[in-house]
Design goal:
This protein is an alpha+beta fold. It has 5 helices and 17 strands.
Length: about 250
């Protein structure tokens, strides 16, 4: 029998579902579970992935929030049967290494995207390098982001970036409101590419960097790469898997 650990958002709807599912299926601690079931929206799913990354447990999400691209439909019945049929989707996070004005360094992971944003009314000036080679000497913009395939339909899509198929082994780099170069709309990169952003005028034009929900302010340099050592496994109903959702998003109008 599949042992389950539940995690739920703090909303009334998610907490009511949590109580119902615990009564139906019982619960064990996450460390002893075969699978973790997350109840909420995509934001809560990301927090669950970060919190339980070290446990190496598959996660099955059910939508009880505003956005649920990473979630399955909520249904209390037949949960163990759904888990037995669920299709696994492995995800590798991005590793964000930042250096601040003080010289302090920070490392954080992102399953969706790493985004840089200006902190004041003035546009950011950023040098963009790939694998140690400068590709754009000065990008003037509100910001810029690097996303995974799973995250390509989130902030990246809102910034007019490309939707990336799962399994394509690529990342997207997308500018946010670029002023110069005017015609640059981003790039699709091999997943093994190391991306470096250098802030050219960090005192006059400060920039923050955010990995999913972890923000670091006043950065002067940000390096991003895909982690091959760390991964998580999301579980999806066969009739509504993540690959199909990403494909369908490309035909939405």
């Amino acid at each position: 029998m599949t042992s389950i650990a539940f995690a739920a958002a703090k909303t009334d709807e998610a907490q009511a579902a949590l109580a119902d599912l615990r009564a139906r299926y019982g619960e064990v601690a996450a460390e002893q579970a075969d699978v973790i079931v997350a109840l909420g929206g995509d934001g809560f799913m990301l927090r669950t992935l970060h919190r339980h990354l070290a446990l190496d447990k598959p996660v099955f999400g059910m939508k009880l929030g505003t956005v649920g691209f990473l979630m399955n439909q909520y249904r209390a019945e037949d949960l163990r049967e759904r888990l037995a049929r669920a299709q696994p989707t492995p995800l590798h996070p991005l590793v964000m290494d930042t250096t601040g004005e003080s010289g302090a360094t920070t490392t954080a992971l992102a399953f969706n995207e790493v985004s840089l944003l200006r902190q004041t009314k003035q546009a950011a000036h950023i040098r963009v390098s790939l694998n140690g080679v400068a590709k754009i000497d000065e990008l003037m913009c509100d910001g810029v982001l690097v996303c995974t395939s799973a995250g390509s339909t989130a902030y990246n899509l809102s910034a007019h970036g490309p939707i990336l198929p799962l399994g394509a082994d690529v990342l997207a780099i997308t500018p946010i409101s670029p002023f110069r170069p005017r015609r640059w709309r981003g790039a699709i990169l091999r997943a093994g590419t190391e991306v470096k952003f250098e802030i050219l005028d960090p005192y006059k034009r400060p920039v923050s960097a955010t990995a999913d929900s972890h923000e670091v302010r006043d950065v002067v340099e940000v390096t991003i790469r895909e982690s091959r050592e760390k991964s998580v496994t999301l579980l999806f109903d066969p009739e509504h898997n993540l690959e199909d959702r990403i494909l369908n998003e490309q035909f939405a109008y």
